[in-house]
UniProtKB/TrEMBL annotation:
Protein name as it appears in the record: PiggyBac transposable element-derived protein 4
Domain PiggyBac transposable element-derived protein positions: 6-77
InterPro entries (UniProt xref): PGBD
Organism (species): Plakobranchus ocellatus
Domain of life: Eukaryota
Pfam families with a match to the protein in the record: DDE_Tnp_1_7 (PF13843)
Length: 77
């Protein structure tokens, strides 16, 4: 159990299907936002590219790791 990482525990509770649903809905939300709202010329939405399953897993890993590692300043994360 020494080699166990936080993501190993997350994968016991969260299935790939659940994360794939998060990816699908995130991409759908971004697409709808770009299509139905007027964006400023400087909006990040102009650079939007769809996210992939691996990116969502990495994001979840980052969130969990940030919650486990105590750092004094937010900018240091």
């Amino acid at each position: 159990m020494e080699d166990t990482m936080p993501m190993d525990y997350l994968r016991l509770m969260v299935t790939e299907e659940m994360v794939l649903s998060m990816v699908t809905e995130t991409n759908r939300y971004a697409t709808q936002t770009v299509e139905h709202n007027e964006q400023s010329p400087y909006s990040r939405f102009h650079q939007w590219t769809e996210i992939a399953l691996e990116e969502m897993w990495a994001f979840l890993d980052l969130i969990i790791s940030a919650g486990l590692i105590v750092i004094d300043y937010l900018k240091d994360y």
